[in-house]
């Protein structure tokens, strides 16, 4: 059983970044930054950190809402949207860099670092895979679903074209034409990059395909295999 804990890292702006950390009992294979979903560091995110640690990865999830004092949002969808609107992309990338720096302080080299994100975190993971040097990235769902602003889709497509590491995109088919088109654009853009990429879409499983046990199990296996193959 891995050790799950919360650490606090001081930042240059005087604030502090909370990190949920999962540390393997045995040898550490590498390090993975876990970027949380729109509702924050939920039980599902903590379970993911724990699962990665059980598989031998030093996993760290930065609490991206720390400037507002929140770890997890319990409110309705309107409260979640309000929190998302307050997010600053530069600050999110800075917090992600802090998490990578924490892994580096624990003797993890960049080519053995990966990133995985869900929902909100899936979008951030894709951007990180284009802007930072690391070993592999996985996006599990993202903000390109129904109602997403067109400028956000454009930004993600641009990121996919400029990938600097192997990237795996995992999505559920929500039966929405706009969402399907956005995923198709991401897939085409990623194929134009110089990196190894793969996009998996689970049909008839909805945006939150993790409620489908078969799809969730297959996605988890693909994720572990992706990191196994590319973080060495």
Automatic annotation (TrEMBL):
Gene3D superfamilies the record matches: alpha/beta hydrolase (3.40.50.1820)
Location of the Dienelactone hydrolase domain: 21-230
Top-level taxon of origin: Bacteria
GO molecular function: hydrolase activity
Pfam family, one: DLH
Residue spans crossing the bilayer: none
Protein name: Carboxymethylenebutenolidase
Organism name: Pseudonocardia thermophila
